[in-house]
Amino acid sequence: MVEQIPQRVGEKPRVLAFATAAVAALSFTFVSPAFAANDPTKPIFRLWGGAAAPRPWRAPIRARRPHSRYTGPVYVLTANGRIVPFVSQRQLSQLSAAVGGAAAASVTLPGGPKPKLLVPGRIAQIVDGGLAAAPMEAPEAVKRMIWAANEIVGFPYIWGGGHASFHAPGYDCSGTVSYALHGGGRLHSPEDSSELMAYGKKGAGVWVTIFANPEHAYVDIAGLRLDTSPVEDPWDLESGPRWRPLRATNAGYVIRHPAGL
């Protein structure tokens, strides 16, 4: 649409091209800075009048596809801070058998029986022996939670275990969650499941999400579930602290997360 504006005698006609103005207006985009929940120092941008900015990444908290075993590369953080390929107990056994048993004494696992395992990317993975490998891109606190929880994986379920002290011969559901949070520096004393219902901040976190009700609690860390219940776990039917696949639904639980994670 074009509108002719009256002009004075001797003045050249002035024409406002509203269509052109509209296009120009659409091409102007106001950029509003926000900040990523997992790193308040890095801005993300929400665009007004232009293309929408992608949603900030969050670790998944529900299973969206059938569970499958991880077969990708695994690394270990050594005591001197180096990251090297991880050699599992299964691989050691295979190597030992191939050379007639001579390799077992000459090859050791860096970091001892519960190594600080790592995998590329942002999603944790269940690897050799039921341990979890922390994602390399996760914050340090998240890695420490995962490595701490590995220390109690395989312990038996004991009602009330892990509440009188973080160190116990067995753990219940909330004792397990408390141990992991404590390992990441986010909890000073154990809490039961009712107390975890009021822990931290409301809703799902970017990296860590706690699910709690008066009867049970578990925590999802970087895409893995740390839980004493074998519900929806096709691989390990034992009760007790274990890394397990995500559940398809988390209905019936209050959802909380540590501040900043």
Give an account of the 3D structure.
- This protein is an alpha+beta fold.
- It folds into two domains: 2-48, no CATH class; 75-257, endopeptidase fold (from Nostoc punctiforme).
- Helix content is 18%, strand content 25%.
- It is built from five helices and 15 strands.
- The protein has helices at 18-27, 89-98, 140-150, 173-183, 193-196; strands at 2-5, 14-17, 30-36, 39-48, 75-77, 83-85, 116-119, 125-126, 132-135, 201-202, 208-212, 217-221, 224-227, 242-244, 254-257.
- The strands form four sheets. The chain has a six-stranded antiparallel sheet. It has a five-stranded mixed sheet with strand order 6-5-7-9-8, covered by helices on one side.
- The longest helix is centred in the middle third of the chain and has 11 residues, at 140-150.
- The chain is globular and about 50 Å long.
- The two termini are 52 Å apart.
Task: Quickly describe the structure.
The protein is of the alpha+beta class and 261 residues long.
Q: Show unreliable segments.
A: 1-9, 11-48, 102-112
Query: Count of DSSP E strands?
Result: 15
Secondary structure tally, helices: 5
What's the number of structural domains? Answer: 2
Overall geometric form:
globular
Beta-strand percent range: 15-25%
CATH-derived architecture of the largest domain: Alpha-Beta Complex
Separation of the first and last Cα atoms: 52 Å
Structural class: alpha+beta
Spatially, the strands of the biggest sheet line up as: 10-15-11-12-13-14
Mean pLDDT: 81
What can be said about the biggest beta sheet? Answer: 6 strands, antiparallel
Q: SSE string, helix = H, strand = E? A: EEHEEEEHEEEHHHEEEEEE
